[in-house]
């Protein structure tokens, strides 16, 4: 049911169930908020948002929302206000008094119509209950029969299992006997094979021994032949070495004689060449010395000429310097004479000033 109050469309619902006292509900909500658990409003029970991280005072009621309950004058109706008003009503009129008038006759009529509407449903439920009871009885009987058949089948299965176990045991014994016989046969076969292998191995060993003996005899014969051949070859090599040694001695003597002759010829040719080179070098040195003497003489002549020219230039410069300094000396003498005269004049002036000062100093004394 919806109604409109002061322009706000709201849903009309009954008050929430009152659970304990107002202080108990407020304390439980605040405790849950402080512990970080899910807490509900102390009035309507709706979940409350957790306390923000920046802190703040926890409130046990929903925040104010004018679109939820509307306004009462200038105030917004909140859960805290409704909880307080309900506690005031309970304190004044008691917890069993309704907060609104109730139309009992309308309620009776509504209940009568509801019961008349429920009569067919009640009859249907009775018929359904009877049918369920019949079906349950039939199911119980079928279950008992099935249990009896199951017990009989279990007995038959136990007997079959016993017979199967006996047959399995007999089969195991037969299999064990067969395995033992097979094992004995395999042992006999293995012994026979081992005997055959031993005989074959002995035969092979005998053949190998004979082959080794023949091989050793052949090796001995080959060794004797190789020794004889080696002795013959050594003898031939010794003869060849003796012949080569004699030839080498002769070649060495010939090489020594040839080397001595070559050294003599080389020494003679080197001596002649050295003497020729020395003569040529001495001739070149004489020519170079003569050329050097000529260059020295020419340089000395040029130097003497330059010295003479420099001496003439020096004498000319000295003469020119003397001629240039003569007027300067005359002027210097005149300047010195002038300076002497001026100094004499200055001394005279100084003497006169001193005399004037002395006279001026004496005049005040006479006046006194």
Succession of helices and strands = EEHHEEHH
Number of helices: 4
Radius of gyration: 80 Å
Main structural class? mainly alpha
From the structure provided, what is the oligomeric state, counting identical versus distinct chains?
single chain
Cross-sheet strand order for the largest sheet: 1-2
List the uncertain runs.
Answer: 1-9
The helicity comes to: over 70%
Q: Kindly estimate the percentage of residues that lie in beta strands according to DSSP.
A: under 5%
Number of strands: 4
| Separation, N- and C-terminal Cα atoms | 147 Å
Let me know the average pLDDT.
78
Largest sheet: 2 strands, antiparallel
Which geometry do the CA atoms define? flat
Coiled coil: 332-359
Organism: Amycolatopsis echigonensis
Biased composition (Basic and acidic residues): 212-223, 272-297
Region (Disordered): 149-190, 207-230, 263-297
Describe the structure.
- This is Chromosome segregation ATPase.
- Residues 332-359 form a coiled coil.
- It comes from Amycolatopsis echigonensis.
- Residues 212-223, 272-297 have a biased composition (Basic and acidic residues).
- With 368 residues, the protein is mostly helical.
- The chain has helices at 22-35, 66-69, 79-93, 104-367, and strands spanning 2-5, 8-11, 71-72, 75-76.
- The chain has a two-stranded antiparallel ribbon with strand order 1-2. The protein has a two-stranded antiparallel ribbon with strand order 3-4.
- Strand 3 (71-72) and strand 4 (75-76) form a beta hairpin.
- The radius of gyration is 80 Å and the shape is flat.
- Mean pLDDT is 78; it is low at 1-9.
């Amino acid at each position: 049911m919806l109604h409109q109050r002061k322009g706000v469309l709201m849903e009309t619902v009954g008050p929430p169930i009152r659970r304990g006292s107002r202080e108990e509900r407020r304390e439980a909500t605040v405790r849950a908020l402080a512990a970080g658990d899910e807490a509900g409003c102390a009035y309507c029970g709706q979940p409350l948002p957790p306390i923000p991280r920046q802190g703040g005072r926890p409130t046990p009621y929903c925040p104010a929302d004018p679109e939820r309950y509307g306004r009462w004058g200038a105030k917004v109706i909140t859960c805290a206000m409704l909880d307080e008003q309900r506690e005031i009503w309970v304190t004044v009129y008691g917890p069993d008094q309704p907060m609104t008038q109730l139309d009992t006759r309308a309620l009776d009529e509504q209940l009568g119509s509801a019961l008349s509407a429920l009569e067919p449903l009640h009859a249907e439920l009775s018929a359904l209950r009877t049918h369920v009871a019949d079906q349950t009885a039939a199911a119980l009987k079928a279950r008992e029969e099935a249990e009896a058949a199951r017990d009989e089948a279990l007995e038959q299965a136990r007997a079959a299992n016993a017979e199967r176990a006996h047959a399995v045991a007999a089969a195991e014994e037969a299999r064990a006997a067969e395995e033992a016989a097979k094992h004995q046969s395999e042992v006999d076969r293995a012994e026979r094979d081992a005997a055959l292998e031993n005989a074959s191995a002995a035969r092979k060993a005998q053949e190998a021994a004979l082959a080794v003996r023949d091989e050793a005899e052949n090796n001995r014969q080959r060794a004797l032949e190789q020794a004889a051949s080696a002795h013959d070859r050594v003898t031939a090599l010794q003869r060849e070495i003796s012949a080569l040694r004699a030839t080498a001695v002769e070649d060495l003597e010939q090489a020594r004689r040839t080397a001595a002759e070559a050294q003599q010829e080389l020494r003679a040719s080197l001596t002649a060449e050295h003497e020729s080179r020395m003569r040529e070098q001495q001739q070149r040195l004489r020519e170079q010395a003569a050329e050097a003497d000529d260059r020295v003489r020419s340089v000395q002549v040029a130097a003497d000429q330059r010295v003479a020219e420099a001496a003439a230039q020096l004498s000319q410069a000295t003469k020119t310097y003397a001629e240039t300094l003569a007027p300067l000396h005359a002027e210097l003498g005149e300047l010195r004479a002038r300076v002497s005269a001026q100094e004499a004049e200055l001394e005279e002036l100084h003497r006169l000033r001193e005399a004037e000062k002395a006279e001026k100093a004496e005049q005040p004394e006479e006046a006194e």
